[in-house]
Amino acid sequence: MMRQTALKAWCDIGTEALQFVSSRMEKDIQTQKALLGCKRLEDLQKVQAEFYSKALEDYNAEATRMMELMTAATAQAT
User: Fold this and answer.
1) DSSP secondary structure string, 31-63?
2) In the structure, what pLDDT confidence band is assigned to residue 1 with cuts at 50, 70 and 90?
């Protein structure tokens, strides 16, 4: 039973990580396209600021999700 719980936890964490990386890569690509379309310095600064703000938000949310998954796995194991 313990092995199954651990395996499921690792699978859940791995799946979450892959989904997050995929999502962030898509956002990175969208940002690159937006940067290439900038004609003014102000536009470039706005795109960069939005990118960093959203990235920080996404990484914080992902850290919370990972902690929740680990907490749940620990609770199931005990």
Assistant:
1) HHHHHHT--SHHHHHHHHHHHHHHHHHHHHHHH
2) low
